[in-house]
Amino acid sequence: MNDIDSTSADHDVAPEATPEARVETDAPVASSAPAVDAVPGPPARREPVGDAAAASPAPSAQSIIDEGEIAADYIEELLDICDFDGDIDIEVRAGRSYISIDSSGGEGSLRLLSKPDTVNALQELTRIAVQAKTGEFSRLILDIGGSRATREQELGAMVDRAVEKIEEGAAAASLPPMSSYERKLVHDIVAARGFTSESEGEGRDRHTVITRA
Question: Residue 211: enclosing H or E segment and its boundaries?
Answer without folding.
Answer: strand 207-212
